[in-house]
């Protein structure tokens, strides 16, 4: 089972790509910090200071300005995330985030799927606000109670 989320960002693909892979930019819309530049084969530590949390992702594939694929989660339950970028003629970019690895037999399956979708929509909204309007204060504003 997978979860697909798409957004249109009014910036060229290289700017959208750099927002993810450049550690100095990711804190403006998603995680607080990234341990280093995202490159194929690297394990990257992402921190979320507001929640005193961190996650390590394994970067599986990078195609500059077009695609980033990574895994996260425990090895036996890891999810694969594919971020693809498609630049249009007007230099806008369609970004797709496709996460797979959900267990349909799990009791909380629907909850996890909805929670995941909400997270990707929120992150992409923050990315759009950051890249198109320079807003950097939306990150970590989603409330989970």
Number of domains: 1
Task: Kindly name the structural category.
Answer: alpha+beta
**CATH architecture type:** 2-Layer Sandwich
Give Rg in angstroms.
15 Å
% residues in beta strands:
25-35%
Estimate the mean pLDDT confidence: 94
Task: Please summarize the sheet with the most strands.
Answer: 7 strands, antiparallel
Gross geometry: globular
* Individual helix count: 3
Strand order of the largest sheet: 1-7-6-5-4-3-2
CATH topology assignment: Alpha-D-Glucose-1,6-Bisphosphate, Chain A, domain 4
Summarize the amount of helix as a percent range. 25-40%
Q: Give the N-to-C terminal Cα separation.
A: 26 Å
Provide the descriptors you would attach to this structure in a database record.
single chain, 145 residues, alpha+beta, Alpha-D-Glucose-1,6-Bisphosphate, Chain A, domain 4, 3 helices
Structure characterization notes:
- There is one protein chain.
- The chain has 145 residues and is an alpha+beta fold.
- It has a single domain, classed as Alpha-D-Glucose-1,6-Bisphosphate, Chain A, domain 4 (2-Layer Sandwich).
- The protein contains 3 helices and 7 strands.
- A 7-stranded antiparallel β-sheet has the order 1-7-6-5-4-3-2.
- The chain starts with a strand and ends in a 12-residue tail after the last helix.
